[in-house]
């Protein structure tokens, strides 16, 4: 998914702080905007990473204290001098794109352009792009999406989607895509997720031809790829498929061309096998329901079912995230 970076680390990353040297952008958008309380601030980017993430950032992304400081300065200069970008220049924003592009500064610059340009090309998706804009989906269909509370053994955020719970007559494709985008924006505020990536678990039980044909119309899956793969700086490391059945097997052959060769290798089709899923993801991290059959704490599991996105790190419906999205949405890509 990501290009190799140009920078070669000279020393392992550590918990040192990076001074903030953010300046105003060329289009007079404040470099410092309200930041969610749990977000890495400009002064502490890189200082809260786990040891696992520090090692991965160094070995896989080329990130060290030295390369981080140099790359942030270089990327800030590129963004500030790009007349088409009206965007943030603080460290917390820039570091997400540097990590995604493995500290290839020009690659990160182009990723920021794509991140903002898609807001123009898909203005319907990015209208009301905030927790309030997806409240009806998250509250009305609480079993559809879940960001699990604990990370897997590789430090990845576990993102669960019960595809069969999607009522494609009640939730439009645009609403669904907007919800995915808002969830990923929130997830990417965690530095551990920026470095370690996400693992997606898709429960395909209940998938129907009606849903498949709905996704096929208006190039929905292509639009999904544009948002998740080309615009958002998210590293999708694995996709776990459960209970696909014959309908999915046929559909996957139709739509698999949308996945890169690398991403196709990251798809693990467990079918109905719980044992296969548990080999890949520890049962203690999974809900107790079928088909996951995990041993997650029962109280936590009940909270996930009854109060999703109202408590915990991703309490999007609590109001805590509103100011962050409002400020972040002020960024623009100015077409020629």
Automatic annotation (TrEMBL):
SUPFAM superfamilies: CRAL/TRIO domain, CRAL/TRIO N-terminal domain
UniProt cross-references to InterPro entries, sorted A to Z: CRAL-TRIO_dom, CRAL-TRIO_dom_sf, CRAL/TRIO_N_dom, CRAL/TRIO_N_dom_sf
Record CDD domains: SEC14
GO cellular component assignments: membrane
Gene Ontology molecular function, alphabetical: phosphatidylinositol bisphosphate binding
PANTHER family (alphabetical): ALPHA-TOCOPHEROL TRANSFER PROTEIN-LIKE, ALPHA-TOCOPHEROL TRANSFER PROTEIN-RELATED
Entry protein name: Uncharacterized protein
Protein species of origin: Macrostomum lignano
């Amino acid at each position: 998914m990501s290009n190799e970076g140009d920078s070669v680390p000279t020393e392992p990353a550590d918990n040192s702080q990076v001074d903030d040297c953010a300046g105003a952008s060329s289009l007079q958008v404040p470099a410092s905007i309200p930041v969610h309380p749990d977000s890495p601030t400009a002064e502490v980017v890189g200082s809260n990473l786990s040891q696992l993430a520090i090692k991965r950032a160094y070995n896989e992304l080329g990130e060290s204290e030295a390369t981080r400081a140099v790359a942030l300065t270089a990327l800030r200069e590129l963004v500030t001098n790009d007349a088409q970008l009206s965007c943030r220049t603080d460290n917390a924003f820039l570091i997400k794109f540097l990590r995604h592009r493995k500290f290839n500064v020009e690659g990160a610059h182009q990723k920021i352009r794509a991140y903002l340009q898609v807001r123009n090309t898909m203005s319907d998706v990015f209208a009301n792009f905030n927790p309030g804009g997806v409240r009806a989906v998250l509250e009305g269909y609480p079993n559809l999406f879940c960001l699990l509370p604990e990370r897997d053994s590789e430090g990845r955020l576990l993102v669960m989607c019960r595809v069969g719970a999607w009522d494609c007559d009640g939730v439009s494709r645009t609403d669904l895509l907007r919800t995915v985008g808002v969830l990923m924006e929130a997830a990417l505020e965690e530095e551990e997720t920026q470095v370690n990536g996400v693992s997606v678990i898709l429960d395909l039980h209940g998938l129907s031809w009606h849903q498949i044909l709905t996704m096929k119309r208006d190039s929905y899956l292509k639009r999904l790829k544009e948002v998740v793969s080309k615009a958002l700086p998210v590293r999708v490391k694995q996709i776990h498929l459960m209970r696909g059945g014959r309908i999915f097997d046929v559909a996957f052959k139709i739509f698999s061309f949308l996945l890169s060769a690398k991403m196709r290798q990251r798809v693990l089709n467990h079918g109905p096998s719980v044992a296969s899923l548990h080999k890949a993801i520890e049962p203690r991290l999974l809900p107790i329901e079928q088909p996951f059959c995990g041993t997650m704490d029962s109280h936590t599991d009940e909270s996930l079912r009854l109060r999703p996105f109202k408590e915990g790190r991703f309490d999007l419906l609590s109001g805590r995230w509103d100011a962050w999205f409002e400020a972040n949405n002020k960024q623009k890509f100015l077409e020629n």
